[in-house]
Design a protein that fits this description.
Layout lengths: L4 E5 L13 E8 L6 E2 L3 E3 L4 E4 L3 E2 L3 E10 L4 E4 L3 E4 L10 E3 L6 E3 L3
């Protein structure tokens, strides 16, 4: 998935919770075509931000969402829906993940 998915833990004032270093796990929220989510799906937050740079989805479809969970906080959030497009054979590329937006997804504080 490009650009890399970033999950940001936020405090009660909507600032990045820079002291949070717990694990964040990403799973499918919506999986419209039975795709497989590959890559490292659990990462520790660094200064409140977990970056998932190696995620990929193997089947083209519209309407995928991902759910990020921070068990230590008891919180989760869902990305906006995005599409995975199959590129044409002339492009020289395999299927490529193409999210509709690149803004980081945030875990709100309780």
């Amino acid at each position: 998935i490009a650009p890399a998915l970033q999950i940001v833990a936020r405090d009660e004032f909507n600032n990045t919770a820079t002291s949070f270093t717990g694990d964040i796990t990403v799973t499918f929220g919506t999986n419209p075509n039975g795709g497989t989510l590959a890559g490292t799906t659990t990462r520790p937050a660094v200064a409140g931000i977990a970056t998932f740079a190696d995620l990929s989805i193997d089947k083209a479809a519209s309407g995928y969402t991902l759910t990020a969970t921070a068990p230590a906080l008891g919180l989760s959030c869902v990305t906006s829906a995005f599409s995975v497009a199959k590129l044409t054979p002339n492009s020289g590329s395999r299927e490529k993940d193409q999210p509709e937006e690149s803004a980081p997804t945030s875990l709100p504080s309780t």
